[in-house]
Each structure stands twice: as C-alpha cells, then as structure tokens.
Design goal:
The complex is a heterotrimer of chains A (68), B (305) and C (255).
Chain A lengths: L2 H31 L5 H13 L3 H10 L4
Chain B lengths: L1 E12 L2 E12 L3 E5 L6 H8 L7 E6 L2 E2 L11 E4 L11 H12 L6 H11 L14 H12 L6 E5 L7 H14 L4 E6 L2 H7 L2 E6 L2 E7 H7 L3 E6 L3 H12 L4 E7 L2 E6 L2 H15 L5 E5 L3 H8 L2
Parallel strand pairs in B: 3-8, 3-9, 6-7, 7-8
Antiparallel strand pairs in B: 1-2, 1-4, 4-5, 9-10, 11-13, 11-14, 12-13
Chain C lengths: L1 H16 L2 H30 L13 H24 L4 H6 L2 H6 L4 H34 L8 H26 L4 H16 L3 H6 L3 H4 L1 H5 L6 H26 L5
Helix pairs in contact in C: 1-6, 2-3, 2-6, 3-6, 3-7, 6-7, 6-12, 7-8, 7-12
Classes of the chains: A mainly alpha (68), B alpha/beta (305), C mainly alpha (255).
Subcellular location (chain A): Cell membrane
Organism (chain A): Alkalibacterium putridalgicola
InterPro entries (chain A): CLS_N
C-alpha cells in the first residue's frame, strides 16, 4: 500500500491504537498490583493480556481480578 | 410500651416446622436476649420481624405497626446486624455509612458529623481503606455503626458475638450497653455468659417454641432445683452433716468434697432453714452456708429439657 | 427518591471501580472507530492482496457499508459485552446478602429495582450513542458525500432493541439468582427470535427487525407496516419485562 494511503488512515488508526494500549496498560497495572493472584497465574494472565488483542485485557478485567 | 410484639408466629420450610406458635413481646428500654441452640429458629424469627421472610400465620408489630412481608415501612424503626455482615466491598466505611444514611431516609442537621461519631464509637473513624480489605472484626464493628445510622427504636442483632475474639466481644457488649439508653436491643445468642452480662429480659426458644420467658432473676428464681453448699471446719463435721442431711427428703444429690457439703433442693429458703436447724441440733458451727446462684446455663438446660 | 439516587450512586461507583464502565467505554469506542475503518479499509486491502492478473469488481464502498459494519459490531460485540458484564448484577447481591442492609434500612424494593434498571439503561444509552456518534463522524470524514437518510430510524431501532434485551436481562437476573444464567436466558430469547424468522407471520411482528434491517433504511427503503408492528411488539415486551421483574422482585425473599 502506498504511503499517502497510510497517511489517510492515520486519523482513525491512531485513536484506535491509543484505546487498545490504554486498555492493555490498565489491565497490566492492575495485574501487577493484584495481591489475590499467585506468581504463575500472573504470568499466564500477562501473556493473555499482551497477546490476545482486545479480548485478553477485557477477560482479565472481568474474570481475572478476583476482587468482588 | 412494647416495642416488639410477636404473636402466634408459625413458619415451616417444607415439612419441617421451624416456628410453632411463637409469642413474646419486648418492652422499651431493655436488652432482650433471644436464646436458643443453633437451628432453634432464632434467625428465622428475626428475618420475619425484618420483613425478609413470610410467616405462615401470626402477627408481628414493631413500635405498634404491623410488619408486612415485602414492605419495608416498619424497618425505619429498626437497626439490624446480621451474624456475618457483608457490605459493598468496593466502598470505604464512610461511603458505606453515607449510603446507609441516604437509603434509610433519615435526616440530620449534620449527617457528616453523625457518621463521624458512629465510626468513632466503633473505632473506624480514620480508616480510608475499602471494605474489601477489612478483617472480620472490623466488618462486625462497621455492622454496628451502620445499624445505628437511623437512630433505631429497636436494634436487632443476630449472634453478634459468636464470630469474635474475647476482646471484640467485650467491646461489642459494652457498645450494646451504651446503645441501651436510647434503643431497645434484641439479640439472639447461644453464648450464655453474654446474656448474663447485658440482658434484662430473655426468652428461650427451643424446637420452634418459646419455652420460657421473663427477667433473668425471675427465671433463676423459677428454677425447680436450687443448689446450696455448707462449708465446715473439719472433715469429721462434714461427715456428720452429710449423714444428717441425707435423711431429709428436702435435699437431693448430696455430695461431699473435703469439708464442703453440697447438694440440690426444690425449696431454696426452706432448705437453708433446715440446714441451720440441723447444724444447731448437731452443735456444729459452719464456716459458711450458701445458696448458690444458678447460672444462665442451668436455666437454659432446664428450659429445654 | 433520595434512596433510589443513593443506590444508583452506589451502582455507578461499583461499576467504575470494578472497571465495568471503562470496559464499555473502550469496547464501544472501538466499535465506533472500527466500523468506518473496516468499511473503507477492507476493500482496499483485498484489492492490494489480489493477483494483478485477476480482476475482481469490488464496488466502491459507501457510507452504508460503514453503518452495516456498525450494526453488525454492535450486535456481535457491543450488546454481547454489555449483557455479559451485567449478567451478575443481581446474583452478586443475592450471594453476598448485601441487599439485606438496604432493605432492612427501609429502602423500598422498587427503589433497588429502578436503580438497577437505571444503571443498565444509562450505560446502554451513553455508550451506544457515543459509539454511533463516533461512527457518524468518521463516516462523514471518509465518505463526504454520505446522506443521513433513514439514519435516525436505523440507529433508534437498534437502541430500542437493546433496551428490550436489557429489560429481559434484569428480569432473568431477578428470577435466576445465578451469575451467568441471565446471560443464557437472553441468549435463548434471541435464539427463539431467530427460530421465529422461519414463520412469515412471526417474522412480520418480530422485534428482530429492529436489529437486522437497520441498513435497509439507509438505502432509501420506505419503512412499511411491519416495522411499526415490530416497534409495538418490542415496546410491549419491554414494558412487560420491566413490570414482571418489578413485581417478582417485590415478593423475592432476601436474606
């Protein structure tokens, strides 16, 4: 794809990336501070959060927090 | 005036009858002990009073108003502390108290101050933590504070002391003593020493029935067998006294331990008089003659016999 | 009223602190962005991947494609996430016995129920329309000659469909008391609607029209009698779900 094309998509791709990164960082920060999970669980969740795009962090924030 | 009146309450779960014609009333300004074994129906009764459970028949009146199941109007007179209180764990104690104040519909000129006072009373005034990080004792203390937020006429506590350590228990009982000045307290328990420590009136519930009810001293006075003991100077005297008492039908279960002779009787005053007559006849001077005050435990055991 | 508002405030704090609102924001914002993006981007991507020798005729994408994507994403992601996240809404309270304190303080059951319903409807309203606005903005940006014909009917009908599903979610949450059974109940209901599509009479009255025919209104199709029937049925069902939930919750044993 030509460069001008990519430039044309930037206004929509940048907000999208920002949203995804925000979500991932929020989930990771929570995971690091979470005292209710042991080390092994944390590593698994970290991998899920980083590599399963979008769904991973959401799954963690819904099911992985073990807070309520 | 009766703050709580329960008449002919019946409730069963399936085929099992939990409450069978339970009636009692609680007068204003007393601490009322509601005693029974686990599973006797205490919590069920309390849940019906709070409108959380439907009774099959019978009537409950709080402050003169009839309790209707599913309708919570009478609960504005009531504060309630369940045995294992659970609160919204994502809130702080202060936020929870504010929520409790708002849902109770109570208004104070200075609600913030009221919350501060109550939290100070239970020792949680400067906790900024969320409730999810609270220990069991802290939750129980918050439980008392939130139960008192609407200045209730009637405070109902379900086994408030059974999950606490001795210090927590002592704190809680002293809080109940304080509360008593303004609020009538009903608390269910199976810990009889707590009853003796704070209760004025008690009702004993067994197998879904109220088996006895009255003030603590009244119930003790009503106890059919009363204990007595005589302390003598010498072992020989004790032998003689025991021998003499054994021939009198007034006394039963006589035992001797060193120079102390103990036993039971059905007639407390008459028994002591007879003992003194026997001692005079035998020309023995005792160190001590005693009517032993019955414990709540004896009252309870006799009641559920 | 004060009690209802206080309880609603508790709901808002709860859903903020346990990241639920944050998740909705991210998901619905992404739907809003992704829909015009994939409408515009996918055909070009396909074209660039194609062999030079094979010529396929791809229609130039229009604003309609952007909205087609939007409605399909809202159906498959937005509504699913919202119903999944809200599914434990009553079960959490029943399980922990947290409502006991509220009820014994004299908070009417109806207040609890309306605060819960308000929480659902506020979230759906806020995030759905936020998502639609984002899509609208980008659609104008990338398809400058797009029209707004039929757009109001298309977006409102999806919105109303969501209101019905959330009312059903609350009703099933009141009855079923478990974490994910309400989710299954709503799923089962939607499944039944799909089965109903096989019968023409049911199809004509089915609420499903509100979430499947959205894009048709954009292409200039005149809404006929069936869509009014669909709105009527959906409206009646929504009111019924809300009223039934309230009636059952009033008689529910809480302890």
């Amino acid at each position: 794809m030509a460069l001008p094309d990519i430039m044309a998509y930037l206004p929509i791709i940048i907000p999208l990336l920002i949203l995804q990164v925000t979500l991932m960082i929020t989930a990771l920060l929570h995971l690091v501070k979470n005292e209710r999970l042991d080390r092994n669980n944390k590593i698994v969740w970290a991998l899920v959060i980083i590599f399963v795009n979008l769904i991973g962090p959401i799954l963690y924030l819904i099911f992985g927090r073990k807070e309520d | 005036m009766a703050v709580l009146e329960i008449s002919q309450l019946k409730k069963s779960f399936g085929k099992q009858t939990v409450l069978d014609d339970v009636s009692f009333s609680v007068e204003k300004g007393s601490v009322f002990g509601f005693i029974g074994k686990n599973g006797a129906g205490k919590t069920t009764t309390m849940n019906i009073v709070l409108g959380l459970l439907r009774a099959e028949s019978g009537e409950v009146k709080v402050n003169g108003e009839t309790v209707i199941y599913g309708d919570t109007k009478t609960n504005r007179f009531v504060g309630y502390l369940p045995d294992v209180p659970e609160f919204y764990s994502f809130l702080t104690a202060r936020e929870y108290m504010q929520l409790s104040l708002d849902v109770s519909g109570t208004t104070y000129p200075n609600g913030d101050q009221k919350i501060t006072d109550l939290l100070a009373m239970v020792g949680l005034e400067d906790s900024k933590k969320r409730i999810s990080n609270y220990s069991r004792g802290m939750k129980q203390r918050l439980g008392i504070a939130q139960a008192l937020i609407n200045d209730p006429v009637l405070l109902i506590c379900d086994e408030p002391t059974s999950a606490l350590d001795p210090i927590g228990r002592k704190q809680l009982l002293s809080v109940l003593e304080k509360v008593k000045e303004k609020t009538t307290v009903v608390f269910s328990t199976h810990i009889l020493s707590d009853v003796e420590a704070v209760c004025d009136e008690v009702a004993i519930l067994d197998k879904g029935k109220i088996v006895t009810q009255g003030s603590v001293s009244e119930l003790k006075g009503r106890l059919s067998s009363k204990r007595w003991s005589v302390t003598l100077e010498t072992l020989a005297d004790a032998e003689k006294v025991k021998e003499a008492l054994a021939h009198n039908p007034l006394f039963s279960n006589i035992s001797q331990k060193d120079s102390i002779v103990e036993g039971e009787t059905t007639e407390g005053r008459q028994a002591i008089r007879s003992i003194m007559e026997i001692l005079t006849r035998l020309a023995i001077v005792p160190e001590k003659i005693e009517r032993i005050e019955p414990t709540m435990e004896e009252v309870f055991l006799e009641a559920i016999k | 009223m004060r009690g209802t508002l206080a309880f609603l405030k508790k709901e808002l704090i709860e859903h903020t602190r346990n990241y639920k609102l944050f998740i909705f924001f991210i998901v619905f914002a992404i739907i809003g962005i992704l829909s015009p993006l994939s409408a515009k981007f996918l055909p070009e991507l396909l074209e660039s991947l194609m062999d030079e020798n094979i010529t396929i005729i791809l229609q130039e994408p229009t604003h309609v494609d952007s909205w087609v994507q939007f409605f399909s994403n809202v159906n498959q992601m937005g509504l699913v996430v919202m119903i999944l996240v809200f599914s434990p809404l009553m079960a959490r309270e029943y399980e922990k016995g947290t409502l006991v304190h509220m009820v014994t303080k004299g908070l009417p059951r109806l207040s609890i129920y309306s605060a819960k319903l308000a929480m659902l409807y506020l979230s759906w309203t806020l995030f759905y329309w936020m998502s639609a606005l984002i899509t609208l903005g980008y659609t104008y940006y990338y398809f400058p000659d797009s029209s707004t014909e039929g757009l109001l009917l298309a977006t409102v009908s999806m919105y109303i469909f969501g209101l019905m599903l959330l009312a059903l979610l609350l009703l099933s949450a009141v009855i079923l008391e478990t974490t994910f059974a309400p989710l299954l109940a709503v799923g089962g209901f939607v499944g039944l609607l799909f089965l109903g599509e096989l019968v023409p009479v049911i199809q004509e009255w089915s609420p499903l029209q509100l979430n499947s025919r959205n894009a048709q209104w954009l292409t200039g199709l005149e809404p006929g009698r069936e869509i009014i029937q669909s709105f009527a049925v959906t409206g009646i069902l929504t009111v019924f779900f809300i009223a039934a939930g309230a009636a059952l919750f009033r008689k529910k044993a809480i302890n």
